[in-house]
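Researcher: Let's do a round of design. I'm pasting the structure tokens now; please hold your answer until I've finished.
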């Protein structure tokens, strides 16, 4: 599932939001300092950034302006207690794509994340279909030619990543990063096991492999 960067320095709220989003199926990296957020935002391929304004060692707005100034276009949802109009305008003018005011309604936050993902991927809803396979990202449901496709959590996450990046090769390292749970990296053969299982369940020709490039669904590149 998508990888989120959560910037929140509140010792209780940050872990609580992280746990809630992980239950939604997201991979969430939590940071509490502005300088750490800036470094992570520069170096990692995140799908959405959730950015608190009141961070130490570099405010959220400073971080956002620097990321945008460097051409990093990752969708950003500002999550903050500052709810005055001029503060919301400052966040949007700095490059934010959306704005959520604390106390956070987790259902609303999850919906806003899905909205940013749809916009980024050019989708109109929370489903994606490639060939005979359809994924419902909100419901975490997969179907094969209209019939339920039983997948483990890891298999779903691998398949979702490949479908989101359809017609592009995804490296083993990128898939391993997708399976990183915040505490432990995937075992060395986890990707191969997941790919093998998906091929048994869907069909061997659905996922293509190229040595040195990785895995791809949706047709071979030209």
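Researcher: That's everything. Go ahead.
Model: Designed sequence:
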């Amino acid at each position: 599932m998508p990888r989120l960067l959560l910037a929140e320095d509140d010792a209780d709220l940050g872990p609580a939001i992280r746990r809630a989003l992980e239950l939604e199926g997201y991979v969430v990296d939590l940071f509490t300092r502005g300088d750490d957020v800036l470094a992570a935002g520069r170096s990692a391929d995140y799908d959405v950034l959730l950015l608190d304004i009141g961070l130490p060692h570099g405010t959220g707005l400073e971080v956002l302006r620097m990321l945008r100034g460097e051409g990093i276009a990752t969708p950003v949802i500002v999550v903050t207690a500052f709810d005055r109009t001029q503060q919301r305008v400052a966040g949007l003018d700095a490059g934010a794509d959306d704005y959520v005011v604390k106390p956070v309604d987790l259902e609303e936050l999850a919906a806003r994340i899905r909205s940013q993902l749809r916009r980024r991927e050019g989708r109109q809803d929370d489903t994606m279909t490639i060939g005979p396979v359809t994924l419902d990202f909100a419901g975490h449901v997969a179907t094969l030619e209209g019939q339920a496709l039983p997948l483990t959590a890891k298999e779903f996450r691998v398949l979702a990543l490949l479908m989101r990046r359809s017609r592009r090769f995804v490296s083993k390292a990128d898939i391993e990063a997708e399976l990183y749970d915040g505490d432990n990296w995937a075992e060395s053969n986890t990707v191969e096991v997941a790919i093998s299982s998906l091929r048994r369940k869907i069909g061997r020709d659905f996922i293509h492999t190229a040595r040195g490039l990785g895995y791809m669904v949706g047709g071979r590149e030209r």
